[in-house]
Amino acid sequence: MTDQNLTGRVALVTGASRGIGLATARHLAAAGARVVLTSRSQESAEAAAATIGDRARGFGAHATDEDQAQRCVDFTISTFGSLDILVNNAGTNPAFGRLIDQDHRRFTKTVEVNLWAPILWTALAARAWMSEHGGAVVNTASIGATVHEPGLGVYNASKAALIYTTEQLALELAPNIRVNAVAPGVIRTELARALWEQREPALAAATALARIGEPDDVAAAIAYLVSDAACWTTGTTLVIDGGQRLGTATGFGDTGRPVAGRPA
Ligand SMILES: NC(=O)c1ccc[n+]([C@@H]2O[C@H](COP(=O)([O-])OP(=O)(O)OC[C@H]3O[C@@H](n4cnc5c(N)ncnc54)[C@H](OP(=O)(O)O)[C@@H]3O)[C@@H](O)[C@H]2O)c1
Prior knowledge:
With 264 residues, the protein is an alpha/beta fold. 42% of the residues lie in helices and 14% in strands. Residues 14-21, 38-41, 44, 62-63, 89-92, 113, 140, 142, 184, 186-187, 189-192 line the site of NADP nicotinamide-adenine-dinucleotide phosphate.
């Protein structure tokens, strides 16, 4: 008997003050979990948690700050008694443009937040709770990891590496801890605003399911992956893109220029 009920589980969701992270925290809480939401700002984290209610707490922690991450993991366990679910969702993209036009600072920030932070938080959660008691981890990757498009080379490379890392962690942490990823298409959030705001009708028309994604679309998939319904699933990446990869809508970084294989 498999089950998506999370009653009694405790979850930690990074980057949860808005967007996919906040929607995920809401879905996990609705399924019965108690949830800690992080943001770089304590105020934003607490405000987001307050929208969920008693079963949620906010914690200000920069995803790449090891000391803050450790304190957040400790806070989660001391507040709610365990740490069964980790969603490494915080992500960034300061490095728009061609690879050869990037600088080391933007590259480093992208890779540290999108790739190193999931490794760091998974390690802390494993040591503090999951290795002994079991657990489920989901990393938020992107369909950008599987395509080539102008302007998003550093971001997409970091997400491709995150998919590899998901598989590696799944192997290293089995059988006690399952590690999976989601790869969203274009979702209506702040991070992706530049991708959808001016071109939503065209993007929707080129998407098999005829609309761009909403944070709840991704949250529902994450809630499935961390639940017992996915108890024999590890090291996999679930694409949540409404069929964007099937059509011509993969232009995350569409510059308006014609791209080979895609109509102008
Ligand atoms: N939207 C899309 O189309 C799309 C597609 C594929 C993948 N993704 C991935 O989905 C994830 C969530 O993005 P989103 O679209 O939901 O973006 P969003 O609405 O902008 O939310 C990003 C969240 O991450 C937090 N955050 C940013 N940098 C952080 C850091 N260094 N440490 C801790 N928290 C940080 C933000 O909180 P504060 O600003 O309050 O710190 C916010 O809560 C990211 O990993 C992104 O790469 C998004």
